[in-house]
């Protein structure tokens, strides 16, 4: 696929590198501005399955050895 894109870009190697960079930056921009915000509510990253609060490390437990 990348070879096909590279062969169909106009110009010499330096122009192709410039166009490729612009295309990559454009795709990344579109992903961060539109695709990721659209998909974020559907992802399970905020689904917490652990009940209760965690104790900080080094905190002694009441009534016994740590």
Q: Could you characterize what this model shows?
A:
- The chain has helices spanning 2-8, 13-39.
- It has a domain at 2-44.
- It contains two helices and no strands.
- The termini are far apart.
- With 66 residues, it is mostly helical.
Q: What structural category arises from helix and sheet content? A: mainly alpha
Q: Report the end-to-end length measured between terminal Cα atoms.
A: 58 Å
Report the major sheet: none
What is the averaged pLDDT score?
84
Keywords: Membrane, Transmembrane, Transmembrane helix
Transmembrane segments: 12-36
Summarize, please.
The chain is an all-alpha fold and 66 residues long. It has helices at residues 2-8, 13-39. The chain crosses the membrane at residues 12-36.
Descriptive terms for the model:
66 residues; mainly alpha; 2 helices; 0% strand
Question: Helices, strands, pairings?
Answer:
Blueprint: H1 2-8, H2 13-39
